[in-house]
Amino acid sequence: MRIVIAGSGRLGVSVMEPLLHSNHTIVGTLQNGNHYTPLQRRAQIVRSHIFTTEDTPLSLAADYRIPTLWLTDQNEDERDQLRALKPDLLISCGFSVIFNESLLAIPKIGCINVHSSLLPKHRGPSPFAHVILQGDTESGSTFHITEAKIDTGPIVAQRSYAIGDRDTSMTIYYKACDTARDMVLDVVDQIDDTGLVSTPQEETLATYDPRITKEFAKINWNRSAQELDRLIRASIAYYPAWFTHHGRVVRVTQTHIQPGDPAAAPGTVLSITPRPVIATSNGSLSLETAYVTNPLAAKWPTTLTRLKLGSRLL
Fold first, then answer.
1. Which residues of 227-265 are buried (b: 16+ CB within 10 A; e: fewer)?
2. What secondary structure does DSSP assign to 121-163, as a single string?
3. Which of 3, 49, 181, 189 is most enclosed, with most CB atoms within 10 A?
4. Tens digits of per-residue pLDDT, 114-147?
5. Is residue 33 classed as helix, strand or coil in its secondary structure?
6. Residue limits of CATH 3.10.25.10 in the chain
7. CATH number listed for the domain at residues 2-205
């Protein structure tokens, strides 16, 4: 089949690489052009070769001399460029653009998306975080037909993997990429043989999760130690969880849940060495890895931090 890949990051590479070494042909790649001028787009290709140690869809396209089309508003000119590639199938993977109906109608067989959750649960842009926030014990990768909505199309294939109690959004992202890599050739070969055979999503089970923002990742010590530990592990791949101390932002990326002091108010510093231990509404958190970035990147706390036993973080 003639395939166009609309992808970014490690997930895009994980889908693209197996197809490059198959009997299928990648005839083009799509990139989001909304944030780049034509000159900046060329610079992105150069940067993907010189300043990154891992492959990207852009660098792979350049290496294999595959055309890259930059989408802005999916106008007729952009759709004509896609038509000229005569694609049988379009696969999106980690692509931050919702395709319109006119573009979705171009590939001969259709369009599929790779979403990193067990749809219909955890639709939206941040599934790696929300499976942790909600205490899920498994997640997975779903190949589904692409619609002009977010992650709603019928399911073509799905595979699950376990979530460990110390997994982070980053480790789950890696699991999702590995799972998609393992699935993609079987999925594409099946589509080539039988067409797009799919099963509708069960809408009564559908959930949509919001994007992880800086404010979302703010640590509130009035929450329980378990909730905050999940927040910290969930936020790593997006915006690391944080709090402020004497006007400086302290980011936290690793914690350990400990018993709390029922008499201590949330935010109370229960211990300073070897690691700060902070009281929460239920239990306490040992801050195993915390750091500041302003004015210089440094572990927190330092000898100059003025962290006092019994003081409160707000």
1. bbbbbbbbbbbbbbbbbebeeebbbbbbbebbebeeebe
2. TTBSS-HHHHHHHTT-SEEEEEEEE--SSSS-SPEEEEEEEE-
3. 3
4. 999 999 999 999 999 999 999 999 999 999 999 9
5. coil
6. 225-299
7. 3.40.50.170
Q: Where in the chain is the domain with CATH 3.40.50.170?
A: 2-205
Q: What is the pLDDT of residues 64-89, one digit of tens each?
A: 999 999 999 999 999 999 999 999 99
**Cross-strand pairs, 312:** 268
Task: Supply angle C-alpha 185, 33, 19, rounded to 5.
Answer: 10
Helix axes 9-20 and 169-194, enclosed angle (nearest 10):
40
Name 157's Cβ contacts closer than 8 Å, sequence gap at least 6.
142, 143, 183, 186, 187, 190
pLDDT tens-digit profile of 180-234?
999 999 999 999 999 999 999 999 999 999 999 999 999 999 999 999 999 999 9
Q: Which residue has the tokens 């595979």?
A: 159
Q: Report CA-CA distances (Å) from 265 to 228, 230, 249, 287, 313.
A: 16, 21, 21, 17, 10
pLDDT at 105 over 60: yes
Please write the tens of the pLDDT for every residue from 231-241.
999 999 999 99
Topology classification of domain 225-299: Methionyl-tRNA Fmet Formyltransferase; Chain A, domain 2 (3.10.25)
**What's the CA gap between 235 and 216, in Å, rounded?**
9
Tokens describing residue 179? 């799972």
Do the beta carbons of residue 113 and residue 151 sit within 8 Å?
Answer: yes
